[in-house]
TrEMBL record:
TM annotation in the entry: none
Gene3D superfamilies: NAD(P)-binding Rossmann-like Domain (3.40.50.720)
Keywords, in A-Z order: Oxidoreductase
GO molecular function: oxidoreductase activity
Protein name: 3-oxoacyl-[acyl-carrier protein] reductase
PANTHER family assigned to the protein according to its UniProt record, in alphabetical order: DEHYDROGENASE/REDUCTASE SDR FAMILY MEMBER 11, DEHYDROGENASE_REDUCTASE SDR FAMILY MEMBER 11
């Protein structure tokens, strides 16, 4: 679903941005889109696909001032982790950290292309 959702939403947004004459797409990736981690095949494959999609959109969007960014995230403390007491919120990114980064990219002028941003928690990959 990671890749399918990104593809369908991007296709629709790209067409609207093309008509408008500009725009910015921001995809949420993962450290799994560039690292090989065990027991992670399906997820990593889908996130690698999102990485490729982002690159293609940047190339196809050049004539229309459409920019695409991939934000590759390390562990983010969400409700998923609340059932895993061995992982501390202090060792992860906060949702607010991620939101602030998305906001900063979104507000950049379209003459600035941010292809990728990697956000990792303090200890790196958990």
């Amino acid at each position: 679903m990671n890749l399918t959702g990104a593809f369908i939403c991007s296709r629709e947004a790209f067409n609207r941005m093309k008509t408008r004459g500009s725009g910015r797409l921001i995809h949420i990736g993962s450290v799994s889109d560039h690292l090989t981690l065990p027991m992670n095949g399906s997820y990593a494959a889908s996130k690698h696909g999102v990485r490729a999609l982002t690159g293609v959109l940047n190339e196809e969007g050049k004539p229309y001032s459409i920019r695409a960014t991939l934000i590759s995230l390390g562990a983010v403390y969400t409700s998923f982790w609340k059932t895993r007491p061995e992982f501390s919120p202090a060792d992860m990114l906060s949702v607010e950290d991620v939101a602030q980064s998305i906001f900063e990219i979104a507000r950049k002028p379209l003459n600035v292309r941010v292809d990728e941003l990697r956000l990792l928690p303090p200890k790196g990959v958990l």
